[in-house]
């Protein structure tokens, strides 16, 4: 799951070299006139290129439209953040105390109203299955957002297990706190920590009593994945055999993180190829790691 702004970045990555070479060849053969005007013939020559670009990357344009443009417009019109708007919808449509119904209500909102970067129903199944198979007692989530994945995991935890979830944005954390309590999870089961992961991780043992995690869900900013995994290792917070599930490693991607986990010798890696939350046409993946404690 990723924040708005990914679509243009992804587009620039794909379209950049092609656009540049096209522009530079046109520049050489037809430099702009003194008035700085591009001739209509050259402008016309671009139309097929633009149409091809739009068709090829239509799903990324749609993502940009829904995640950025609609969001900005609604923010101005309502004076609320989109996460607060989603919470209002959930509050009026979901059954309190029923986590599954709350998740489905979020999904309805995301498919029919506005885009949210929850893990979503398809990748959610992978997460749910791993929690079910591993029966972890101590779970750490990095990036709570609205609490979607938090309640998805919490509902499958074995009795006596504890989930710590870390969110740095206080507005998102306020929404998540309400969602988690609406779903019926108390502070003994789910503890929401408001702060940036790089500050919270070093304090997990002493301040929060998290000695070692046997399941980690990484779903915050992708550029933080590698740094935070190494922080977890350095502070001895990973139990041998722990599972780490990292979302969005294909879109928007976390190449340095993937390179590290594949080469450092401390992890067994498996890739779950899937699609971006609420966008079946955009490929994405989740990396499942098993910490061997070696190397
Ligand atoms: C993709 S959303 C998380 C989605 C959530 N896991 C779910 O599936 O419902 C990413 C969230 O991570 C938070 N975040 C990003 N970097 C962070 C960091 N370094 N520490 C804590 N939270 C972070 C953002 O504020 C955002 O709310």
From TrEMBL:
- List, alphabetically, the InterPro entries matched: SAM-dependent_MTases_sf (IPR029063), SAM_O-MeTrfase (IPR002935)
Q: Point out the gene that encodes the protein.
A: TOMT
Q: Which PROSITE patterns match?
A: SAM_OMT_I
Give one GO biological process term: methylation
Keyword line: Catecholamine metabolism, Endoplasmic reticulum, Hearing, Membrane, Methyltransferase, Neurotransmitter degradation, S-adenosyl-L-methionine, Transferase, Transmembrane, Transmembrane helix
Note the superkingdom of the native organism. Answer: Eukaryota
* EC assignment: 2.1.1.6
Molecular function terms, GO-annotated: catechol O-methyltransferase activity
Q: What Pfam families would the database entry show?
A: Methyltransf_3 (PF01596)
Name of the protein in question? catechol O-methyltransferase
Entry's transmembrane regions: 34-55
This protein's record includes keyword Transmembrane: yes
Instruction: Write out the similarity annotation.
Output: Belongs to the class I-like SAM-binding methyltransferase superfamily. Cation-dependent O-methyltransferase family.
Cell compartments where the protein resides: Endoplasmic reticulum
Annotated Gene Ontology cellular components are:
apical part of cell; endoplasmic reticulum
Which SUPFAM superfamilies does this one have? Answer: S-adenosyl-L-methionine-dependent methyltransferases
């Amino acid at each position: 799951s990723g924040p708005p702004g990914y679509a243009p970045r992804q587009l620039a990555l794909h379209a950049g070299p092609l656009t540049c070479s096209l522009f530079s060849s046109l520049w050489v053969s037809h430099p702009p006139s003194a008035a700085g005007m591009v001739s209509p013939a050259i402008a016309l020559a671009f139309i097929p290129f633009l149409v091809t670009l739009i068709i090829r990357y239509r799903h990324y344009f749609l993502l940009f439209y829904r995640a950025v443009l609609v969001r900005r417009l609604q923010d101005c019109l309502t004076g609320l953040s989109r996460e607060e708007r989603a919470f209002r919808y959930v509050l009026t449509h979901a059954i309190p105390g029923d986590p599954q119904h709350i998740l489905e209500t979020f999904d309805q909102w995301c498919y029919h109203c506005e885009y949210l970067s929850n893990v979503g129903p398809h990748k959610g199944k992978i997460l749910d299955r791993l929690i079910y198979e591993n029966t972890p007692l101590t779970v750490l989530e990095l990036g709570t957002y609205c609490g979607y994945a938090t309640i998805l995991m919490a509902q499958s935890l074995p009795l006596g297990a504890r989930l710590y979830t870390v969110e740095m944005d206080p507005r998102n954390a306020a929404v998540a706190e309400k969602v988690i309590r609406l779903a019926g999870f108390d502070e003994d089961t789910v503890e929401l920590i408001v702060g940036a992961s790089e500050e919270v991780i070093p304090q997990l043992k002493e301040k929060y009593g998290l000695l070692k995690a046997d399941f980690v869900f990484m779903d915050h900013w992708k550029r933080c994945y590698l740094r935070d995994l190494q922080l977890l290792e350095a502070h001895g917070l990973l139990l041998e055999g722990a599972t780490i599930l990292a979302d969005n490693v294909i879109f928007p991607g976390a190449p340095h993180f993937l390179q590290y986990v594949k080469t450092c010798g401390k992890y067994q890696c498996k890739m779950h190829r899937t699609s971006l939350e609420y966008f079946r046409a955009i490929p994405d993946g989740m990396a499942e790691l098993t910490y061997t404690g070696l190397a």
